[in-house]
Design a protein that fits this description.
The complex is a heterodimer of chains A (114) and B (220). Chain A contains two helices and nine strands. By secondary structure, chain A is mainly β.
Chain lengths: 114, 220
């Protein structure tokens, strides 16, 4: 993956709008968070292959970045994104990695199920 | 050298669950003539570690981890790897009939004398606990006379307060080469500084940290 380039990601977000898509969205502290440090509160959540369609979307921030996608009935939101997969042409794969390279957050859109 | 354990079944939820706690023991069983089937429930596809620097992503991780698992099994000498196709992080939510049934089928067809899994309730990751619990339920469905011995791994905080000290300790120092190779096979997941480089002999520190594997015999 490559560090996010704002303009490139905005172009990709625009190119996927008003289409039936599958969403993978997750955020995690890791299952071992409280095992290593009892002051930590372990939390993780993911939705995989949710059917979505957005009418408008954008990326903002100075890095790590935020993405908001406006859907017919609500919003999809993600903060902490740092990287994108440059080799994907049809799909948008965004992820946020911490200073150790571990994945903290992921936002992925595809016309086909993941 | 002939092992009393000829057929061994390992049931763990993630690629890499074998490497730190069990790979030396399995290498020893295999050296002594044992036949090991490793049923790995998932591909660890929700793992957070993507390599340092990251070379995997959410989409490529399952394929990469499958290859890492296959390499780890080759380094240990495991003869039979089964990928059961469940999804990472979902074991505790799976249909118990489906999950237990897959494990029971392995027990009935392979008829192992010894099974390795995680100790349910004392293994930190929900998938570990759910995997161990499913193995115990499946073994309990066998007639008492046909049940294999079950050796469990446990590492939650304060686990000894509840289940006491491990009753099995395996000296795996003669198998550190295989064990270190097994850990290093999972290169997207682990970077262990003291295992870096190609030292001919493991250091005292490595022997101390990795030279013994401990298990609890499950009491049915």
């Amino acid at each position: 993956m490559q560090p996010i380039e704002l303009g490139e990601i905005q172009r990709r977000i625009d190119s996927l709008k008003n289409q039936d898509l599958y969403l993978h969205l997750e955020m995690t502290t890791g299952a071992y968070a409280a095992h290593w440090d009892s002051t930590k509160h372990p939390a993780a959540t993911f939705v995989t292959n949710a059917a979505v369609r957005y009418t408008h979307g954008s990326i903002s921030g100075a890095g790590p970045y935020r993405v908001g996608l406006k859907t017919e009935h609500g919003w999809i939101y993600s903060e902490g994104l740092t990287h994108y997969e440059e080799t994907e042409t049809e799909r948008l794969l965004l992820a946020g990695h911490d200073s150790q390279g571990k994945l903290v957050v992921a936002l992925q859109l595809s016309g086909q199920p993941f | 050298m002939e092992s009393t354990e000829r057929k061994i079944l390992v049931v763990l939820p993630h690629p890499d669950d074998e490497c730190f706690g069990l790979s030396g023991t399995l290498s020893k069983h295999i050296r002594e003539g044992g036949y090991v089937t490793y049923a790995c429930l998932t591909l660890g596809e929700m793992g957070r570690n993507m390599g340092v620097p990251p070379f995997a992503n959410r989409v490529t991780l399952p394929r990469i981890r499958k290859e890492e698992l296959e390499l780890s099994c080759r380094t240990i000498g495991i003869q039979d790897l089964r990928l059961l196709g469940f999804h990472d992080k979902t074991i505790e939510f799976e249909d118990k009939e489906l999950l237990d049934g897959k494990i029971l089928e392995l027990l009935q067809t392979l008829r192992p004398s010894l099974v390795y899994t995680f100790y349910p309730g004392f293994s930190v990751h929900p998938d570990h606990d759910a995997c161990g619990a499913a193995v115990i339920r499946a073994v309990e469905r066998l007639p008492e006379a046909d049940r294999p011995v079950v050796h469990c791994m446990a590492f939650s905080r304060d686990h000894e307060q509840y289940i006491g000290k491990p009753d099995v300790a395996v000296d795996v120092k003669p198998f550190l080469k295989q064990k270190i190779a097994s850990i290093q096979a999972h290169r997207s997941q682990f970077q262990v500084p003291e295992l870096q480089g190609n030292k001919k002999q493991p250091t005292k520190e490595v022997e101390e940290r990795f030279g013994t594997e401990r298990f609890w015999t499950y009491r049915f």
